[in-house]
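Please check this:
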Amino acid sequence: MTPLESLIGTGTKLWLDSIDPNLVVENRKFGATGATSNPIIVADLIKTGRFDSKLAELMRQGLDNDGVAWAVTDYLVKEAQQVFLPVWEESDGNDGYVSFELDPLLED
């Protein structure tokens, strides 16, 4: 048994601290059951250049910088949600979440 399998065997829920689509898929295979992220993680993903075509598509739609940022974030979160949806379904909603940390000053 690997240390990771041992950890999961204790009932610990393993969540990935990223919504990088590649890492989400890879870590789901290792037993991750959810993910969390924040604006810094999304900014770092954008800096990789892997999402340039998505950014260009959103800019062609006429979105401003904030709109593009939120749309990319929404896209990445939704992609991760699809990967963890089976966990959510199998656990009756007790796991399988994708959370996103927001700026607390953004309350309505």
